[in-house]
Amino acid sequence: MKDLRAYGAYAIVTGASSGIGRQFARQLAAARVNVVLVARHKDRLEELATEISDEHGIECRTVALDLLANGAIDQLSQEVAGLDVGIVVANAGIYYAGPLVDNDLADELDVLALDAAVPLQLAHRFGREFVRRQRGALILVSSSIAASPVPYEANYAAAKAYVLSLGQALNYEWKKDGVDVLVVSPGPTQTEGLDNAVGIDFSTMGGAKMDPAQVARTALDSLGKRAHVIPGFSNNLADMAAKYLLPRSTSVRMYGRIIKQALTDDAGGAA
Ligand SMILES: NC(=O)c1ccc[n+]([C@@H]2O[C@H](COP(=O)([O-])OP(=O)(O)OC[C@H]3O[C@@H](n4cnc5c(N)ncnc54)[C@H](OP(=O)(O)O)[C@@H]3O)[C@@H](O)[C@H]2O)c1
């Protein structure tokens, strides 16, 4: 792993109160990077902040913020003004499974905003500063399903494909400026997000779920070495099949069958 402190003294992690984001925060702290934890649940952020600052002797700040609120990125910028922020992990994400027309449009627009527009805003806001000073790193959390259109997760998969494309392009644009960009595309990972997913029961789908700590570790190990990483051997095989072995129409049909079988009665927006 690179010396993560070389990017700057602080890292911002969105969606740090749970799952993969929580593990990013822990591992950045273990690497002696001060961390700014962002999510809506202040109590959970403060509990984590106490735990990791005690354990690693770093400074840990919390910003309780709904990233879907108007002006959220401006507010976050103000909260970190004056800090030497070197790493931004755009991790917060939500999704709804089910037939698109049965889901509430407002929920699907929230998915598009939190999973795609917020990473864009973070990239623009903090990337500008990174490029100006020729130092920094951006980690964007996509998903292994970004490799194919996915029926019954149509909007979420499209948003994650956007994030993958954005990050790979920015990796190229910013390389000359000494700024590292990495997209991490986890497969099914054992988090609260997976357990509480609306409209789908992942336990019926079989296959091992990854440890979120392993996802964060793989991403941090890959930062500065590549543009895109997919944690886990079987997730890489599935990605190669979707990209190179199967015609896109076959991949769509395959995903359609798999996801349809896992849909639950609350598919269709009963969040
Ligand atoms: N788990 C998987 O199988 C999997 C697979 C592929 C990709 N991913 C991606 O990995 C990322 C993390 O997923 P996860 O499974 O770790 O999810 P998770 O356990 O549900 O955590 C999501 C985090 O996002 C925060 N969040 C949600 N809405 C927010 C909002 N409006 N404003 C600010 N923060 C918000 C949540 O905190 P609060 O509720 O406190 O706000 C929480 O900290 C997501 O982008 C997800 O799409 C996950």
Structure commentary:
This protein has helices at residues 19-30, 42-56, 72-79, 105-133, 154-175, 192-195, 212-222, 233-245, 248-262, and strands at residues 10-14, 34-39, 60-64, 85-90, 136-141, 179-184, 228-229. Helix content is 48%, strand content 13%. The mean pLDDT is 95. The structure holds NADP nicotinamide-adenine-dinucleotide phosphate (NAP). Residues 15-21, 39-41, 44, 66-68, 91-94, 114, 141, 143, 186, 188-189, 191-194, 212 line the site of NADP nicotinamide-adenine-dinucleotide phosphate.
Summary tags:
271 residues, alpha/beta, Rossmann fold, 7-stranded parallel sheet, 9 helices, 7 strands, binds NADP nicotinamide-adenine-dinucleotide phosphate
Topology, element by element:
Elements (H helix, E strand, L loop, with lengths): L9 E5 L4 H12 L3 E6 L2 H15 L3 E5 L7 H8 L5 E6 L14 H29 L2 E6 L12 H22 L3 E6 L7 H4 L16 H11 L5 E2 L3 H13 L2 H15 L9
Bound molecules: NADP nicotinamide-adenine-dinucleotide phosphate.
NADP nicotinamide-adenine-dinucleotide phosphate binds next to helix 1 and helix 6.
